[in-house]
Design brief:
Largest sheet: 5 strands, antiparallel
Strand order of the largest sheet: 8-7-6-5-9
Distance between the termini: 61 Å
CATH architecture of the largest domain: Orthogonal Bundle
Helix content: 40-55%
CATH class of the largest domain: Mainly Alpha
Bound molecules: heme C
Strand content: 5-15%
Number of domains: 4
Number of strands: 9
Order of helices and strands: HHHHHHHHHEEHHHHHHEEHHEEEEEHH
Number of helices: 19
Structural class: alpha+beta
Length: about 425
């Protein structure tokens, strides 16, 4: 590497060094490298920090749940031994692809090559590693990989298979093995008290999700939710079936007797819709939830809740919201240096600040330096008294409305029975 580039790299790593007086070309490269690091930083905070830690120390909140410690990406002793290509390959292929732990997920089916290089640059930046600058290869692919779709007929074939083989002990055992030992699922999901907590606890997956939804989601989560932190794992059809059968068998579909009146078929979807959106009514769900772009952002989007969740689970979410807190919507309590209490759902966090959205839908930005105490609370922002303020018929109507929503994408129509 030229001396000029080395100096440039060292300067950029220390940020803020005045670039004045530098030759134009160096200035241009510096801008390029800074842009690369900025991009890598955002991706890192979104996809990597929960395991590798906000500053790359290997101490993310999820790290304690892993049998293998996430690499210390900010430790020059560690990164110096790796070439840029080696780091690139580890991110692209995941641990299993480079003879490391399967708990490190593969991101090559989720992120573009250019994005992966930006992560390599950011890792060099975290490690203050001056010797191996990162530049985008000239022929780099900038588009994200194509997300697999559900071809017509695949869903039918799955359903038939699931009906016949879904309870077979061999199938369940193979699915469990793939989930825990082979793919990185267990690194992010808890089952019966063990496993990671980046994604939802799947101990009751069979109660919560329809089998068709699990099958379709795990093949390509990005197709449903482009911004999800779950990468596309790259499961083939057999693997998707086995894992789906295993998960669909977890957790009985519990139906307490006093739920029956709510679950009875024949509610009025039109009235349910009215209640959902009526700002003057007792339900007014759209204050916090949106459906196909209409409504608030405090709670999760419910556009595909009817395709993906079982009716008993949706009912449980309405009657007893605190039973399951949807991932990304746990509420935080902040005490500021000035003595102010703030509560809301955390929507963003980086190493300097936190953004929350409170139950009235207001966005609040807090600098970490201004925070005295911070606590994540296992409570729901969603009111717990709908069972008291709405009649059985009203809840039944809302449930009917939610489960009768047309699938968001045409291919999901195959999931609906
Ligand atoms: C679910 C937890 C988890 C997530 C998310 C995760 N990693 Fe890792 N990562 C690990 C673990 C565990 C290891 C250690 C693997 C080993 O040493 O066997 C690792 C190792 C690595 C390594 C070193 C590989 C080697 O060759 O030793 C790199 C580089 C890396 N991760 C980068 C990333 C990047 C970049 C992201 C985000 C795009 C990311 N990781 C997301 C868990 C995770
Ligand atoms: C890097 C972490 C990570 C890995 C690895 C991972 N997941 Fe997830 N998963 C998540 C997150 C986060 C969500 C929540 C989805 C969202 O709302 O963005 C999720 C959601 C899910 C859901 C529920 C979907 C829904 O509609 O809410 C299922 C089922 C699931 N994952 C199964 C799996 C399986 C099976 C694997 C392995 C093949 C896997 N996950 C690997 C993070 C992960
Ligand atoms: C004050 C805001 C608020 C109101 C009003 C509200 N919710 Fe929620 N809801 C939330 C939040 C926040 C979550 C996520 C946390 C949790 O799981 O409890 C949630 C979660 C849910 C879920 C679970 C989604 C999933 O996929 O896990 C369902 C279903 C739901 N709400 C339905 C409703 C219905 C129906 C109404 C109206 C009767 C309603 N909510 C009113 C805030 C609200």
């Amino acid at each position: 590497m030229s001396q000029k580039l080395k100096i440039l790299f060292a300067a950029v790593l220390m940020w803020g060094l005045p670039a004045t007086g530098w030759p134009n070309e160096v200035g241009r490269l510096e801008d390029q490298f800074k842009a690369l690091i900025q991009k890598g930083r955002a991706l890192y905070l979104h996809y990597c920090a929960h395991c590798h830690g906000l500053t790359g120390n290997g101490d993310g909140y999820n790290a304690d749940h892993l049998d293998k410690s996430p690499a210390e990406l900010s430790n020059p002793e560690f990164t110096k031994k790796k070439s840029n290509e080696q780091i690139f390959r580890a991110i692209k292929l995941g641990g299993a692809g480079v003879r490391k732990s399967h708990l490190m997920p593969a991101f090559g089916r989720t992120l573009s090559e250019a994005e992966t290089w930006s992560l390599v640059a950011y890792i060099r930046f975290l490690g203050r590693d001056h010797d191996q600058p990162v530049f985008l290869p000239e022929d780099v692919k900038r588009g994200r990989p194509h997300t697999p779709t559900l071809e017509p007929g695949v869903m039918e074939a799955f359903r038939k298979w699931h009906h016949e083989k879904g309870d077979d002990p061999k199938v369940l055992g193979d699915g469990r093995w793939l989930f825990r030992e082979k793919k990185s699922c267990f690194a992010c999901h808890t089952v019966n008290g063990e496993g990671g907590e980046v994604g939802p606890d799947l101990s009751r997956a069979g109660f919560m999700f329809t089998p068709g939804w699990i099958y379709s989601w795990i093949r390509s989560p990005q197709r449903v939710k482009p911004q999800t932190k779950m990468p596309t794992i790259g499961l083939d059809d057999t693997e998707s079936r086995l894992i789906t059968a295993y998960l669909s068998n977890l957790g009985e579909v519990k139906r307490p007797a006093d739920w029956e009146p709510y679950l009875k078929a024949g509610g009025d979807a039109d009235n349910g819709k009215k209640l959902f959106f009526d700002a003057k009514g007792n339900a007014y769900c759209s204050k916090c939830h949106s459906i196909q772009g209409k409504g608030g952002q405090v709670g999760p989007d419910l556009s595909y809740v009817g395709v993906s969740r079982t009716r008993p689970f949706i009912l449980e979410s309405i009657l007893a919201p605190k039973e399951v807190i949807t991932v990304g919507y746990s509420s935080v309590l902040i005490l500021t240096q000035a003595g102010r209490f703030l509560t809301g759902v955390k929507v963003n966090e980086d190493d300097k600040s936190i953004d929350i959205i409170n139950k009235d839908g207001e966005n609040i930005h807090v600098e970490k330096d201004d925070i005295k105490k911070f606590k994540t609370q296992e409570i729901s922002i969603m009111p717990g008294n709908f069972g008291d303020i709405l009649s059985v018929q009203e809840i039944r109507d809302i449930l009917t409305y939610l489960t009768s929503l047309p699938p968001v994408a045409s291919e999901f129509s195959a999931i609906k029975r």
